[in-house]
UniProtKB/TrEMBL annotation:
Domain Aspartate/glutamate/uridylate kinase residues, every copy: 23-131
Protein name: Aspartate/glutamate/uridylate kinase domain-containing protein
Any one GO molecular function term: carbamate kinase activity
GO annotation (BP), single: L-arginine deiminase pathway
Highest taxon of the lineage: Bacteria
Family to which the UniProt record says this protein belongs: Belongs to the carbamate kinase family.
């Protein structure tokens, strides 16, 4: 196998360009300004680090948390709301058990086990805490219902859960 050049790294048998687009947020802002619904920050991609000696990027074994990435991107774009859409109607307490119950609201303090909706709830709560905007976790087939609260779980900051009011998304 030959050596990879430039900002490429070997992934399996192939050299893959590891350069970040740099235009991503600009393109997303243009699409939003044009009234386009933008769905982004899903899974995929190759985690990389810059080698301190060679200054080249190289792949590493890691997991990119797409929920945290979505929350960060929403914050960077000054989003009015963050919706994390999935294949269930709500975040559930005791998910997978006979006494599971849907949660209409949740905070970071809700005790969810690893492998449940914990990462989604934590990412949404972090977005709310950093921005004062709203966030919800709900079903992919009903994003509008999740946004208006007829389905899904509204994720709140602890301060909101204890009396302060959330900031509603701007309406046009």
């Amino acid at each position: 196998m030959g050596q990879c050049h430039g900002r490429a790294a070997r992934i399996g048998r192939q050299c893959r360009d590891l350069r970040a687009s740099g235009q991503g947020r600009t393109v997303i802002r243009q699409l939003l300004a044009a009234g386009t619904l933008v769905i982004c920050a899903g899974g995929g991609g190759v985690p990389v680090v810059r080698d301190s000696v060679t200054e080249r990027l190289r792949s590493v074994e890691a997991v990119i948390d797409k929920d945290s990435r979505a929350a960060l991107l929403a914050e960077q774009l000054d989003a009015d709301a963050l919706l994390i859409l999935t294949d269930v109607t709500h975040v559930f307490a005791d998910y997978g058990k006979r006494h599971a119950r849907p949660l209409s609201t949740a905070t970071r303090a809700v005790h969810l086990p690893e492998g449940s909706m914990r990462s989604k709830t934590e990412a949404a709560a972090a977005f709310v805490e950093r921005t004062g905007s709203i966030a919800a976790v709900g079903p992919l087939d009903n994003a509008p219902g999740t946004l208006v609260g007829t389905t899904g779980t509204l994720v709140q900051a602890e301060s909101v859960a204890h009396g302060a009011q959330p900031t509603a998304p701007a309406t046009s």
